[in-house]
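Hi V.,

You were right to ask for the full record rather than a summary. Here it is.
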Amino acid sequence: MKTIDYSPLRGQDGSMSLPDRLRGIWQYDLSWYRDLKAQEAFITHLGKHLGNDFFLVRSLTWPGFGLPIPLVLVGPAGIQVISASALKGVYRLKQHNWALLDDRSRRYKLTRPNPVARLLIMTEAIAEHLAALQIPQENVNPVFYLFQPGIHVDAEDPAVRLVRPDAVDHFIASLLQKEPVLEEHQIEQIVEALSRPPEGEPLPQKPKYFSLGSLRLLYWKWLLLGIMAFMAICILAVTIAIIFTNL
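Predicted structure:
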């Protein structure tokens, strides 16, 4: 399997520094780095079984999305738009509705953001972009990989393919056994097309904000700022104590 990584936060050797990790969490979400580790676990599985007729495109920046499209796997079996998640808990998936079981009320509550709906939008965007190459939309498939072994999902007519940790080998086997729908030259065309996303302005984001005058930040970003400030004060205090001790 050949991998093409467009992440701006990763070095040429594939490593990621601590500042880049913090920048990714700040830019995207608190769960971003955990999901990134889930991606890497899934990629390890794929790399063990898929040959060089498969291409994996990572961290694809696309107009209109605040997050990169995590993984796009292109091969003879078609195109798989893959989102990997490190979520824990008990969930219900009914078509595209993603709900978490509340421990107190014992009722399912729809979650925001909805990772399944987001994956479907990404898949549709990829399919529309490839329509110019006359790639049938049914050859572009959304796949939701669940990394945590303890997660439970009650699925009813799911709009995406769910792949649990114990079903990765089955997923890979289904790709290898499927009747080819893409030829080698088409695969190369698709990978080239993915390197040139359509032009467009990002859609406006509407997260929950906490206001302080004209400064507006997400709740968890305020928390992260507070932790960083506290750490800076502690380091400064220790430095001053060391200096006065040595006088």
